[in-house]
Amino acid sequence: MSISDNIHFFxxxxxxxxxxxxxxxxxHSVERLQEAYAAGARLFGENKVQEMAAKQPELPTDIEWHxxxxxxxxxxxxxxxxxxxxxxxxxxxxxxEMEKQAAKHNxxxxxxxxxxxxxxxxxxxxxxAEAETILQSDAxxxxxxxxxxxxxxxxxxxxxxxxxxxxxxxxxxxxxELKARYFSDNETFREISMGMSSDYQLAIAEGSxxxxxxxxxxxxxx
Length: 222
Ligand SMILES: *Cc1c(COP(=O)(O)O)cnc(C)c1O
Description:
- By secondary structure, the chain is an alpha/beta fold.
- The chain has one domain: Alpha-Beta Barrel (TIM Barrel), CATH 3.20.20.10.
- 41% of the residues lie in helices and 18% in strands.
- The protein binds pyridoxal-5'-phosphate.
- The site of pyridoxal-5'-phosphate has 14 residues, from strand 8 and helix 10.
């Protein structure tokens, strides 16, 4: 299966649903990204700032770039001119830096709150209480150039389907709680980013609106 075939496969899987595909392009060459673009991919996910900033000028301007990896505040400036969504928001400090850099370019940067739902300690993200502390702060309420559009998480690396479903359902629960408490009149807050190559079907069944798929499109990464 070619990259193009794989993009078409995922688009057909998602047809008729409200879930969209984020094509995870990390480690792949600009030529391979162009092939994905030609097949219709428009949301691209990268996990490293330098790599995203290097590729972006080589590709069409109607791509929505999503940063999906941990982001240090001092690196926000490199992607602020173009990044659409930072999916890995895990602190108020990061939101404040996004605000500062987005303001400089007179644009809006979207963010997803990343939650820790996986069993492994190594995976980063907020607890529900930490997210609420951010959302209740005056500093958050004053943001003008940052728009939170939902939640994101990386599930445990396991083939245990019941376990994965519980984690996805936990994230969906967080989304609905936050929506009811803080974003009930805010149409922008609507995304639940969950599901990757190995577990996207379960994630869709549990309400994902953004699946992040890399290896099932491009093959395994070196
Ligand atoms: C790499 C990555 C993905 C895609 O993983 P695949 O298993 O290749 O589909 C999804 N989400 C995040 C946060 C990633 O870093």
